[in-house]
Specification:
Length: 189
């Protein structure tokens, strides 16, 4: 004899088939009330994402979205594996298209600028406004490279902050203290 499934007694789709028309209408209205703020939140999120995308493109160009998506993917082991696989596949295809590039080193100890992985990790940490938390042992060259990279990353972050502040300040000067464009006043003069 077959055993009864644990889900046999669970309510399924349409389990409320015994509802009256008024009860169904009441439930539908309740779901509509729940749905409205969700749709409003989705519209706001969509608008925020579009505005973010415009700012990203203005600051980093058309490749900025790829760069940010790659940084996000690299935050997990699975994402890092996927990115590494994509890089290897694209590098392989590139070497097929340009045989002179066949000797590309995928993961060299130093990058094209001659900087180490420790330096680059520290620089990213500094640019990401993280506190200096050096993972390398004191007195090692990696420790020094990481600290130097962090300092350089913080300097880049400070430069960007100054540029943004200057840009906002210039926009305020153009607008004028009374909210009218100064350019309009100069044209009238």
């Amino acid at each position: 004899m077959a055993k009864a499934s644990a889900n046999e007694n669970a309510p399924g789709i349409g389990h409320n088939g015994e509802l009256t028309s008024d009860q169904r209408q009441c439930l539908a209205l309740a779901y509509r009330r729940e749905h409205r703020p969700l749709i409003d939140a989705k519209k706001k999120a969509d608008a925020d994402i579009k505005a973010w995308g415009r700012r990203l493109k203005a600051d980093l160009g058309s490749e900025g979205k790829i760069e940010v998506a790659t940084l996000i993917a690299m935050e997990t082991d699975e994402g890092a594996e996927k990115i590494d696989a994509e890089i290897k596949a694209k590098t392989r295809a590139r070497s097929w298209a340009s045989p002179s590039d066949m000797q590309l080193g995928l993961f060299p100890e130093k990058d094209a600028n001659g900087e180490t992985k420790a330096y680059n990790a520290g620089k990213i940490s500094g640019m990401d406004d993280e506190p200096l938390d050096n993972p390398y042992g004191a007195g090692t060259s990696d420790h020094e490279d990481y600290a130097r990279g962090h300092q350089d990353g913080c300097a880049v972050l400070a430069e960007i902050s100054e540029m943004r502040a200057a840009s906002e300040e210039a926009a305020e000067l153009i607008k004028g203290s009374d909210g009218e464009d100064l350019d309009d006043e100069q044209d009238a003069a």
